[in-house]
Amino acid sequence: MTQSNRKNKKPRIFDLEDQALNIKEEPNLNAQLADEEELKSSKSKPIDTSPETRAGKTVNSKFLSWGLLLFSSILGLFTLWLTTTLITSIEQLYERPDIIGWLAISLTALLVLSLIVIIVKEIVSLSKLKKLGSLKTAGRQIHQDNQLKPAKKYSRQIKTLYEFTPKREWLLKSLKDQEQEIMDGRELIELIDTEIGAPLDKEAQKVISETAKKVSVITAVAPGPFIDMAAVTLLNLNMIRKIATIYGVRPGLWGLTRLGRNILAHLALSGGLAMTSDLLQPLIGSSIAAKLSKKLGEGMINGALTIRIGISAQEITRPIPYTVAKKTSFAKIVSTSLTNSSKS
């Protein structure tokens, strides 16, 4: 380019976002050098293919496989010996003509009979637990729709549920005496809640309060964490069983397991476990909590958690929806059971 051409050119303005411009970026030499050095080092790194290394890996794999086979063989032989011994002993008992043989047959019959009874009771308890939930849903819907005929049907179902339950005759008698005068569906549901639901709530609240006291005391005096955990678990399971029995069903092992799973799900959805420690602090009082020992404080926390579990069990197993009766107050039970026990 000549000097005259350079002088004739004027300054120009470029737009950096113009796609017509073709700006070539210079390659990053440092990055290329680093990649080349890494590639050379990886190629120059020696691979350990010595016979000793390969032999060590082979020996370890063979040792693990043969050791596992040895252990499995021993376990299988022991299981076979134990099974054969039991079968032989049972056959010898059945073949004996004396009283021992008849005793073995009688015990086997009792075993089969008890197993059948337990299975039947578990099925019945599971069906009753399912029925409690459906009754609560139906009662809530009837109360919203305000229909008299479904309300009377619901009243008959509640009376059938508690008809053969001991110490419930006076509740049913009070309901029968008053429901004849009612001509409104919503009012009948409220009467059932007042005459049957509220008295049952008081019994359940008493069970919750007593269990919370026991849990707090046992936690405070338990010598070890495992004993503490086992005792608290058993007390909570017993409390759940008692509350379910109050509301019309006595759960068995599977029923109690299902009920416990529903209670945990209810606590997780309602946030009951997270709210317990926040609500417990102002109820106890910071000055009192500061003077408490560590074990006594843990006992009160476990007692509060027990109250949460009891209230959840009460809401799940209660077959009557809350309409007039008030729900169980967590703060009230804590103040009447835990704080009074800690002061005493």
Descriptive overview:
The protein has 13 helices and no strands. The protein is mainly α and 344 residues long. The longest helix has 47 residues, at 99-145.
Keywords, separated by commas or semicolons:
344 residues, mainly alpha, 79% helix, 0% strand
Write a short abstract of this structure:
With 344 residues, the chain is mainly alpha-helical. The protein is built from 13 helices and no strands. The chain has a domain of 217 residues.
The gyration radius over C-alpha positions equals 37 Å
* Uncertain residue segments: 282-291
Distance between the termini: 106 Å
Strand content: under 5%
Average pLDDT taken over every residue: 75
Task: Tell me the structural class.
Answer: mainly alpha
The oligomeric status of these chains comes to: single chain
The biggest sheet amounts to: none
> Percentage of helical residues?
over 70%
Extended strand count: 0
Shape: extended
H-E order: HHHHHHHHHHHHH
How many helices does DSSP assign? 13
Topology:
Layout: H1 3-8, H2 29-44, H3 51-95, H4 99-145, H5 148-161, H6 169-179, H7 185-221, H8 225-246, H9 253-270, H10 272-284, H11 286-291, H12 294-317, H13 330-343
Helix pairs in contact: 3-4, 4-5, 4-7, 4-9, 5-7, 6-7, 7-8, 7-12, 7-13, 8-12, 9-12, 10-12, 10-13, 12-13
